[in-house]
Amino acid sequence: MAISFLGSRKINKQLFAKGSFLGARFFFFLLLSLVVMISDYRFHYFHKVKSALSVVVLPVQELVSWPAKSFHWVDSRVKSRHALLDQNNALKQQLLLLQVKTQKIIALENENAQLRALLSSSTHLDGKVLVAQLLAVNVNPLDPQIVLDKGRGRGAYIGQPVFDATGVMGQVVEVGPYTSRVLLATSNRSAIPVQDVRNNVRAIAVGAGYTGDMQLVHVPDTVDIKPGDKLVTSGLGLRFPIGYPVGVVQSVKHIVGERFARIEVIPSAHLNSSRQVLLVWPEQSKLAKQVRAMLAPPHEAHT
Amino acid sequence: MKKTLLIIFSFIIAMMLAIVPMPAWLNWLRPDWVAMVLIYWVLVLPNVVSIGVAWVVGLILDALTGSVLGAHAYALVCVAYFVSKFQMRIHLLDLTQKAVIVFIAIFLYQLVIFAINGMLGRMPATFLYWLPCLSSAIIWPWIYLVLNDSKDHFDLAVK
Questions:
Q1: How far lies A75's CA from each of A67, A78, A88, A298, in Å?
Q2: Among A118, A221, B17, B134, which residue's CB has the most CB atoms within a 10 Å radius?
Q3: Do A33 and B70 touch (CB under 8 A)?
Q4: Percent of chain A scoring above 90 in pLDDT
């Protein structure tokens, strides 16, 4: 008994001898990870490696989003006639409402164009737009990201603005051949130049991280921003087109002894629930012209 | 061969569980599935699954979660080293004691990722960040039993 026990131990030891150089392998792979991390952080050509890896992980993402997709598919197939009729009616009513609103907007747009012509600046821009489906959600609450099912093949690029029906979602930070990764506006890596609709005060909205809202940074205590103010993109930075809703000011706190006010903003886009989003290609030259016109002092704009 | 398939399959399932959307309050409690499956395989088959596998799995996990490439790889390599260094001793422990080891290993894993994020300026400033080591340790016995059963099943099928 004792001998066989010893024998089995010996075999175990021999088996384990195959996995020797443990420490050496450990340091080798640690170094390798460090090299990968530093090159990913520093060098832009590493994007190619990342986009190749995005294809590798695509099946897993597809598998995870498959139940939701198939649920939608089944749901749309087995809906009763009655429900469809109801939905149809509701949509018709909504369409009517929207049409009425559009008429108003056409009038306003005309007026706006005239005013802009007076100010000799360009008209409102309409870039190319593409609807993209949500493929995956990054569940890490510290770094909110989503994955879309449109990639380089459809012309997505790094830094591209992404909207949903109600406002700014974020911007593209990684592009693979078939997918792209969007950094949401609430990530603390995201900063969006904004403008108060009420008085055109400009600021920068930075994501607050895991709390799911945003903050305006470096806004002096004396600036006129109140709770309830709507913030839209200002177009500065030439990344986001002008005038799209970013969020609503929730609270403004003046802290004694600090130079800047603490301003919290609730994003207006449905960051957690939108399944369809819009990829936008703003027209860079027009955008630049618009921003220049906006920044120019009024007396120069006339000349 | 069949065992390799089982290993790959278990890692794929773990990765799916790692990115399945969950309600926000549950999100902080999400166990580190991939790290746990890795710990299991390193304990049971230290000659098949070790540091190299941990690195590759970590790299895929990085691509999946969109963190800086190499962060999860680094953390998983640390975990694999820790477990395979003491594999003989850990393997003799009972299930609860193993859960304590898993707690320590997952804590190590999170500590490494915490440090990397801190260096990149993405420090998670909340204690909720550390919850997964607790939830992982709690869920560990079930993972262990499920994987053990499926492994035994495959062993029988081979013989």
A1: 12, 6, 16, 56
A2: B17
A3: yes
A4: 24
Rounded CA separation A146/A269 (Å) = 14
Any domain includes B159: no
A100–chain B Cβ distance below 8 A for any pair: no
Q: What is the domain count for chain A?
A: 2
Domain count, chain B: 1
Q: Considering the domain boundaries, does residue A188 fall inside one?
A: yes
Whether residue A103 lies inside any domain: the answer is no
Q: What is the pLDDT of residues A252-301, one digit of tens each?
A: 998 888 888 899 999 998 888 778 888 888 888 778 887 887 777 665 54
* A151 and A24 both lie in a single domain: no
- Look at residue B124 and tell me if it is in a domain: yes
Statement to judge: residues A63 and A26 lie in one domain: no
φ, ψ dihedrals at A173, nearest 5°: -115, -15
Quickly count: other Cβ atoms within 10 Å of residue B143's Cβ: 19
**What ipTM does the predicted assembly reach?**
0.86
Q: Each residue of B63-85: pLDDT tens digit?
A: 988 888 899 999 999 999 999 99
* Chain A residues with CB-CB distance to B69 below 8 A: 36-37, 40, 46, 49-50, 53
Q: Distances from the Cα of A236 to the Cαs of A117, A190, A232, B143, B155, in angstroms?
A: 22, 15, 11, 51, 63
Tell me which residue range forms the domain holding A35.
2-43
Angle at the Cα of A281 from the Cα atoms of A277 and A287, rounded to 5 degrees: 125
Residues B110 and B114: their CA atoms lie apart, in Å, by: 6
Residue A269 within any structural domain of the chain: yes
Question: Which residues of chain A are within 8 Å of residue B108 when distances are taken between CB atoms?
Answer: none
Residue A183 φ then ψ, to 5°:
-85, 120
